[in-house]
Amino acid sequence: MNQASSERYMELTTNTNDMTRKLIDVNNRFASLSDALKKIDQFDKDIEQLEKKAFEIETLTKQLENRYNKLETEHNH
Asked: Recorded GO terms, molecular function (predicted)?
């Protein structure tokens, strides 16, 4: 029984060590991607701001077109 317990303990120790190494590897990979992920987040924020500005420009353009059309209609009558 002691032999079986000892073997099981060694197996668990080996598995734990393997999982620890793999977790360290995953953490290191994530850390190496951290800067890239931060840049992606910043790009996303920048794109969102650009989309808002584009919408504002589109709204202003439509307002100007409406004013122009109104003035043109008034001028022609």
From this structure: gamma-tubulin binding
